[in-house]
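Fig. S4 source data, part A: sequence.
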Amino acid sequence: MKNILVAEDETAIRDFVVINLERAGYNVTEAENGAVAVEKYDNANGDFDIVILDVMMPEKDGLQVCKELRKKNSGLGIIMLSAKTQEMDKVSALMNGADDYVTKPFSPTELVARVDALYRRIAIAEMRSENNFKEEIRSGDFVLNLKNHSLMKRGKIIELTQVEFQIMEYFFSNPKKALDRSDILKKVWGEPYAGEEKIVDVNIRRLRMKIEDNPSSPKYITTVWGLGYKWETNEN
C-alpha cells in the first residue's frame, strides 16, 4: 500500500519529491520521462495508488501519460506538477482525468498534504470495498454505489475518477442545496487545501460531459450564479 509513481525529467526536482514522500511514509518508484512512467506502471501491473506527473516531459508529456493511465484505471490518483505560466496545461490536465495539480515552485508541506488528501480518498474507497460496504444512494435516474465507486444513469455505468465520485457523493447527500465552491473545495480536496476554486469549475465541467444529456444546457448539475452549484433531479 501507499505506492506512488513519480515522473519528472528534472533530476533535482524528482529527488526533492521522492525524498519528501519517502519521509512521509510512501513507497516511491521513479521515472525520468513519460514513456518510462507508462512502462513502469504496466510492469507493476498498475500497483500504484497515486501517480505524480510533470506536465512538460520528453518522450511523452504528462498530459499524454495522464490520459493513458486514466483509461487504464479510473480509480487511480493522479496529481500534475505544472509551472505558473502553464495555465492552460492545468485545465487540460484536469479535463484529461487528473485529480489535482501542484504549481511549481512548491513546498514539501504542500506536496505531501495534497498527496495525503488524495490517498485518504483512495483508502476510504478500498475500505468500503473490502468490508462489503453495499450502501447505495439513489437520486432520480442515478444510483451512486459507495462500495465500488460507480455511478449508474438509467442502468448504464458512468466511469468516475476519485475526485468526481467525491463531488457526486457530496451532491447526492445535499440534493437541491446550493453548494458554495469553497465548500466543495474543502469537502473534496480537504480542509487545508490552498488551491484555486477554479479546480472545482473544471471538474464540474468534466462531470457534466459525462452525466448530462446536453452538457451545454445542464439540468442535473446547475449553476448558482455567484455561489457555486446545485444537484437537481425530478425525484429529489
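Fig. S4 source data, part B ends here. The chain has two domains: 3-126, 134-231.
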